[in-house]
Design goal:
The complex is a heterodimer of chains A (about 325) and B (about 475). With about 325 residues, chain A is an all-alpha fold. Chain A has 15 helices and no strands. Chain B is α+β, with helices and mostly antiparallel strands and about 475 residues long. Chain B contains 14 helices and 23 strands. In chain B, a hairpin with a 5-residue loop joins strand 4 and strand 5. In chain B, helix 2 packs across helix 6. The longest helix of chain B is centred in the first third of the chain and has 25 residues. The chains are: A mainly alpha (about 325), B alpha+beta (about 475). Chain A: This is DUF403 domain-containing protein.
Chain lengths: ~325, ~475
């Protein structure tokens, strides 16, 4: 497969997944805002979290300064100037898909194209109060796209690069959600166990569609350590770090050819660590420290995948045309 | 009949459905009964359905200068244009004859130049032409074919008279619309296809693939074929992607390819892979910054040298522009007689050359009646359509002609045939042309029909999509 094609497929998948995750994060923030909480600065804390998770805080502050619910929502959902807004993510997903529409099935293209056309059609009528339906729509479309992909595409390199993009992005997002929530939710360990605490952790689980799984597995009240265990170490939890790395590891093995040995090694190492770690080890090291290290290592893995498969290397004389779109920002 | 524009308003042209005298031509009988007899609202709804399908499938073209969100649909008309079997057979013979002669001409020009030696075409017409590629002199190409894909623009003026307007031998486009128009019609009107025996066109990508395989450099058993596109913002990007995917080959951009030791490779996830045939949709000038425009970033450095050395095949070949130039067009009937010893089956439009003083004089005196074109123009840009132009436009164009008469040719305004077309006021006749796609490998192949373009504005003769024209499905009946 062409390196450029693989690159577009990888990023197409990442942007769809990113749009879905941003929708999840915002959805939870909206729900959380409905909960009773009159502690000082709750709004700022609540609405800073989504900005922080998605790495959008600096751009937001430059544009608006103070954190306000409506502005944060707009900036993260619909603002074309925000490079990781849902709007931008879907636009870039579609541009990447368009660049390789011959490499995806026509049904995949139709989903991704109509998703973009529908978004543009809905845009004038989207405001703060109708956004919950919008977040559901983004999640549904993302599910639909994944389903159509698995249901229609050949199981070859095209699918593998799509899955690599999906699961690397998902691992990254899950780690960020967990990290930020941890900071917001645990200003001090004394707070653990309060009602607000319960709702907040519940909301976190909801954001990754894991509340039902939590109840099923633990049959007990919600505790931070178990939430962390579920989200980091449970291989049977679809959005957990372990589950994502399972997919990444297996997918790298499946890709044709012998390039990318270093990427396989990095993925294998990360995967093995998740496989053999106990949640007590994570907490004794510090959850934040653990997650920061994980994010660094997935970034290194992503870089190595680029280096091995996606970059246009091995000929210095060729002219690289500047893309009209910087399709692969971030 | 209530939605047909009344017959008194119907222009005096030949109508594909009703000839000159208004009598229904046999091949349109079922369409008249099954399609046009439906209420106008139903037709309009179908037309909207078609647009939705096109929009959803992203069958769009990008407009130069516009941003990416402004991809436009080419208007699609739901009333098909229909050829009878015999009618088409005659056209097919004429098209094959013409394309065979054009390829023989190209081979001759870049080899022994017999046609010049015989005095049939003046040397300066060829050698003094900016489309002539001196670097192609003596280069041997597979099958001696230069233009593997030709788009021949035809117009009709009566039952049996077709004229060739233009031979497109560089990177002719539009074939994806031929295929998608059919696809859309079959989705919208399955019953019409049940009632007719419409010759299929869906195998065109297969014919194209065979042609490209036959064009590979010698001794390559299983050639690797790619489609080379300038990129997503090219107006025909949809077509490039469509054809690549229909043939199951890679769609590449210049930056995906590199040349080493006169062989061409593409960068893949498994390392470099050699490419043998490039169906290029990039013009000569942009193909290779080392051989042509140094500022081009669309091409591949060293590609032309690799091509000349036989390390890779390009379709269409380099330098084909010399044969589809509008001043070379004048000589195509002579080419057919010279190379094939046959009478041309398709006519040229009578053409005045403005570098000849007496013809220039005539043309300047008759501008309001004529169509004047730039010799090297394309896409309907930069032409004067006398009968529909204002006096001021004609005066301005006269100035342009006088600056450099040799850059222009003129032709009479033909009474282009019309075809029933759904427009706002109902179903009305609109002018059409036809672009069949002729493929030349070891043999010449074409899918029955082609792309019918329709001028949606009443009375307009300009059908180019860049000028607001639309398209129709083109049917060739099998009996």
């Amino acid at each position: 497969m062409l390196s450029r094609t693989a690159d577009h497929l990888f990023w197409m998948a990442r942007y769809i997944e990113r749009a879905e995750n941003t929708a999840r994060v915002l959805d939870v923030a909206h729900r959380s805002a409905l909960l009773p909480d009159d502690s000082v600065g709750v709004d700022a804390r609540l609405w800073y979290a989504p900005l922080n998770i998605c790495g959008s805080a600096p751009g937001y502050e430059e544009k608006y300064g103070l954190v306000e619910a409506a502005k944060v929502t707009h900036y993260m959902a619909l603002d074309p100037e925000n490079p990781s807004s849902i709007y931008t993510s879907l636009m870039l997903a579609r541009e990447n898909a368009r660049a390789v529409r011959g490499a995806i099935t026509s049904e995949m293209w139709e989903i991704i194209n109509s998703m973009w056309l529908d978004l543009k059609r809905m845009l004038p009528n989207l405001d703060q109060f109708r956004l919950e339906g919008f977040f559901d729509w983004v999640k549904e479309r993302s599910h639909l796209f994944r389903g159509v992909t698995l249901g229609t595409i050949l199981k070859d390199d095209a699918l593998y690069f799509i899955r690599l993009g999906t699961f690397l992005e998902r691992a990254d997002n899950t780690a960020r959600i967990l990290d930020v929530k941890y900071h917001i939710l645990l200003p001090s360990v004394d707070d653990v166990g309060g009602a607000a605490d319960y709702y907040q952790w519940g909301a976190l689980l909801n954001s990754v569609s894991a509340l039902e799984a939590y109840r099923k597995i633990y049959r007990d009240s919600i505790s931070p350590m178990r939430v962390a265990e579920l989200m980091i170490l449970r291989a049977d939890m679809p959005r957990s770090l372990h589950a994502c790395l399972n997919e990444v590891d297996a997918t790298l093995e499946a890709i044709n050819g012998t390039t990318g040995l270093e990427a396989r090694r990095l993925a294998g190492e990360l995967h093995a660590a998740l496989h053999f770690t106990r949640i007590e080890d994570v907490f004794s090291r510090g959850l934040h420290e653990y997650l920061t290290d994980f994010l660094d290592r997935t970034q290194a893995l992503s870089d190595e995948i680029h280096h091995a498969y996606l970059s246009l290397k091995d000929d210095s004389s060729s002219t690289i045309r500047p893309d009209r779109f910087q399709l692969q920002i971030q | 009949m209530d939605k047909m524009i009344s017959s008194s308003e119907r222009p005096k042209q030949f109508d594909e459905m009703r000839g000159f005298d208004g009598a229904l031509r046999t091949q349109y009988a079922d369409i008249d009964a099954q399609l046009l007899s439906q209420p106008l609202e139903t037709l309009i709804q179908k037309q909207r359905d078609a647009e939705l399908l096109f929009r959803r499938m992203g069958i769009t073209f990008a407009v130069y200068g516009a941003n990416s969100s402004e991809e436009r649909l080419i208007p699609f008309d739901i009333v098909p244009r229909i050829f009878g079997a015999d009618e088409w057979r005659r056209l097919e013979l004429g098209l094959k004859q013409r394309v065979r002669a054009l390829n023989m001409f190209l081979h001759d020009i870049y080899h022994d130049q017999e046609i010049i030696k015989a005095g049939v075409i003046p040397a300066e017409q060829v050698l003094g032409n900016s489309m002539y590629q001196a670097a192609m002199q003596g280069v041997d190409l597979p099958n001696q074919v230069y233009a593997q894909i030709a788009g021949i623009d035809l117009v009709r003026v009566s039952e049996n008279d077709f004229y060739v307007l233009e031979d497109n031998l560089r990177t002719p486009s539009g074939v994806s619309y031929m295929l998608e128009n059919r696809n859309t019609m079959m989705r919208l009107f399955p019953n019409l296809f049940a009632a007719h025996t419409v010759a299929p066109v869906e195998h065109y990508p297969q014919l194209l693939l065979e042609t490209l395989r036959e064009s590979a450099p010698e001794h390559i058993e299983d050639p690797v074929i790619v489609v080379l596109t300038p990129g997503t913002f090219n107006s025909a990007y949809f077509e490039h992607a469509f054809l690549a995917s229909q043939m199951g080959v890679e769609l590449v951009e210049g930056k995906d390819l590199f040349v080493s030791a006169n062989k061409v490779y593409m960068r893949t996830t498994q390392g470099p892979q050699q490419v043998h045939v490039i169906y290029r949709r990039v013009d000569d000038d942009y193909l290779d910054p080392m051989a042509f425009r140094p500022d081009s970033m669309l091409g591949v450095p060293g590609l032309f040298e690799a091509y000349r050395a036989g390390g890779v095949a390009l379709t269409n070949g380099v330098g084909t522009g010399i044969a589809d130039d509008k001043s070379t067009y004048l000589f195509v009937p002579e080419m057919i007689e010279f190379y094939l010893g046959e009478q041309p089956l398709l006519s040229n439009v009578p053409t005045w050359r403005l570098d000849r003083p007496d013809e220039l004089k005539y043309v300047l005196e008759h501008l309001p009646e004529l169509v004047v074109k730039e010799v090297q123009g394309s896409g309907g840009y930069g032409m004067l359509v006398g009968p529909t132009s204002t006096q001021a436009e004609i005066a301005a164009y006269r100035e342009r002609i006088l600056t450099d008469p040799a850059k222009f040719i003129a032709q009479p305004t033909l009474a282009l045939s019309t075809c029933p077309t759904l427009v706002e006021a109902g179903v009305a006749p609109r002018h059409v042309d036809l672009r069949p796609f002729v493929l030349s490998g070891k043999e010449i192949r074409l899918a029955p029909g082609g792309l019918t373009r329709v001028a949606l504005t009443e009375g307009s003769l300009v059908v180019n999509s860049s000028q607001g024209g639309g398209t129709k499905d083109t049917w060739v009946l099998e009996r």
